[in-house]
Amino acid sequence: MSLDQNLFTLLLTPNTSDPAGTVVDLTDPSGNVHYRKRRIAGQVYRSEVYEPLSGALLASATAPSATTKHKTLELYNPSKVVELKYTGTLTFRWSFKWEDHEFEWRREECFMIRKPDPPVLVAVTKEPPGRIKTASVQILDYNLHRFDIEDRKGLEIIILTALMTFQDASDVYHEPIATPVSPPPVPPPPPPKPAPKKGVERIAELQQGRGEVNEVTVVEEGTIKDYAKHSSRLLQDEAMLFISIRSSDSAQVPKVLQVVEETKRIRHKAGGAELHQYVLYDTQKPARNGHQDDRGKGKKKENSPPTSLVVHLSKIDIPELRPRKPKEKEKKDAKEKKEKKDKGESPKLKSPAPRPNPNYGQPTSGLPQSSTGFLGRLGRQGGK
């Protein structure tokens, strides 16, 4: 709203001696300071209005925050409390009472409400568009003199104090929110490593991922008793009909045998049924360059220890793993021969061994005699 240059005008200018920007001086166009307003920093909102020459406190405004819709204004010497309330819905309206009159701030204008008569303008300001940033204010004394008001100076201070609370609320609303710089989050410490497993638990851990659940591979790590206990636990499962205990290399072959014996001992001591045992081992060694090593041919071969060993411990009999007896092979051959005979096929006869010739060294009839050949010499010797 445009101001009348002929009326008394107060300019709101920041105090140059306050670097924080919390002090505002209300001066006339000549530069004379009439009022000084200071905003007090703290958890709650508080602003104070002083007389600039004496420094006497004239009024204060308090609220939980600068943007609260209810503020308490207080005058001093004499003391008087005035409630400033936000009464607008979609428009800017703040109301307060002074003596027997009601006043209302509407953005750039302050009115005395006279129902049912029209309101009377008592103060005007100059605001930039978009936000409250009061640059100047005029108190219309000629309208105030029309009404019966005992303390016109106190009303002027209340009108100015209310106006400056609006500017503080606007500054808080539009000021950028300072994002607190927090230190980077410290990652939580890693959980402590579990204690390494020992005994049977360590043996079970070693077997994970090696093969079937019923296989126990014996390696250098672990004791014989721990392997035997682990094997016994596997056999305690009713669904586990057999287990296979195998060596990881040739050095563990003797250890496998000891594990097997200890496993059977533990099961017998616990009252379990007797186990069937089947042994598979390998003694063949790879040939060099794809050819058999003929060195030492003709010499007596000595028994070499097995290079790998697998022992099956079973709760049931497994005929496929039972060692074959020599007589069984003969019976099988005889049975096959009989079946071929029944089908009408003649058995293959072996050729008889050649017999010695009784006439060896004698002249053979029907053959021409030679006086010079090998047979001729034999004939001559026979005629003598």
Structure characterization notes:
The protein has 384 residues and is of the alpha+beta class. Helices cover 24% and strands 25% of the residues. The strands form two sheets. It has a twelve-stranded antiparallel barrel. Strand 1 and strand 2 form a beta hairpin. Helix 3 crosses helix 4.
Compose a concise summary of this entry.
This protein has 384 residues and is α+β, with helices and mostly antiparallel strands. It has seven helices and 16 strands. The strands form two sheets. The protein has a twelve-stranded antiparallel β-barrel with strand order 1-2-3-4-5-6-7-8-9-10-11-12. Strands 13-14-16-15 form a four-stranded mixed beta sheet, covered by helices on one side.
Radius of gyration: 60 Å
Q: Specify the biggest β-sheet.
A: 12 strands, antiparallel, barrel
For the secondary structure, the number of strands is: 16
Assembly category: single chain
Main sheet: strand order: 1-2-3-4-5-6-7-8-9-10-11-12
Question: What's the order of the H and E elements?
Answer: EEEEEEEEEEEEHHHEHEHEEHH
Proportion of beta-strand residues: 15-25%
Low-confidence stretches: 285-301, 357-384
In whole angstroms, the N-to-C terminal distance is 172 Å
Bulk shape: rod-shaped
The overall average pLDDT, rounded, is 80
User: Share of helix among residues?
Assistant: 10-25%
Number of helices: 7
**Structural class by SSE content:** alpha+beta
